[in-house]
């Protein structure tokens, strides 16, 4: 594989800003209500779960773009290298969290079963009944692995689709799959309520297929210019998505609008990074929170259990405000700097990517041309 020096970096700073927004949404969605005068966190309590949809939109666009870059630079997609980088990026922080959680469960009255640990390790936690768990708070401390499970499953579907599908058929097939999932969601909701299926791959993975579709389309420079022209109004789409959030919770049409709206917002902001909103997303504090967002997502579940977790707090003061926020960031920062960043760099060293990415995770990124 050619050297990284002189090649254009695939790093998009705006995405780190979106990651920061997404994880803060999730944290305050899991948190108790806070209010100071007329200001409160009620909006996050009601709609903060949309942060996961933001993560899906980012992943779908970014992962597909990196695979297409690999094909453009090297002539083909290197699946082995892709999976090596993903494994070194995803697994160490996740296994660290699971290991410490299992240890704490032996020392404290934390309700963690071997079944849910199995589901988390093998990324099938989004099907609790499949591993013998009820759909309730009894598995709270690993329940957030549902989104990681869907992402990992996506990592197997998308590369295979890109590898074995002629280029002219990729966009139609992704569009067809997204439509198929949307139709399946309508049928599924006819038989079961949303709360019972909301974490299932077959009703959520279009949140990754649609942004991947956009990535394939915008890889064509002509189509990219069309997207750039029309998505300069992406803040209007933000307002539109915010307006539909209070309506139709648990309905197929609300879920579908979010699936298509969210990647438009994320893509629009990346195509117009010089706008005032783009510059806000690239603020250094947001970019740092975005960099540690994966570790934050893992660790917030241990400390933020007030709304959906078990009624008792086995960690005592550590789960009280504001110590739970401080400890979440402390664990995430330690996880990021001691595990996530160095092991991800090792993964990139063992399997260099075609286009350098973030300098802190890609050892060749420092030589990339921005």
SSE arrangement:
Layout: H1 13-30, E1 35-36, E2 39-40, H2 42-47, H3 50-74, H4 79-107, H5 114-121, H6 140-143, H7 145-164, H8 167-191, H9 194-197, H10 201-204, H11 206-218, H12 221-230, H13 234-244, H14 252-271, H15 276-281, H16 284-291, H17 293-303, H18 323-350
Antiparallel strand pairs: 1-2
Helix pairs in contact: 1-3, 1-16, 1-17, 3-7, 3-11, 3-14, 4-17, 4-18, 8-11, 11-14, 13-14, 17-18
Total count of helical runs of at least 4 residues: 18
SSE pattern, N- to C-terminal: HEEHHHHHHHHHHHHHHHHH
Global geometry: globular
Radius of gyration: 20 Å
Q: Portion of residues in helices?
A: 55-70%
Number of beta strands: 2
Biggest sheet architecture:
2 strands, antiparallel
Q: In what order do the strands lie side by side in the largest sheet?
A: 1-2
For the terminal residues, how far apart are their CA atoms?
20 Å
Beta-strand portion reads under 5%
Category by helix and strand content: mainly alpha
What is the typical, i.e. mean, pLDDT?
91
Number of domains: 1
Poorly predicted residue ranges: 1-7
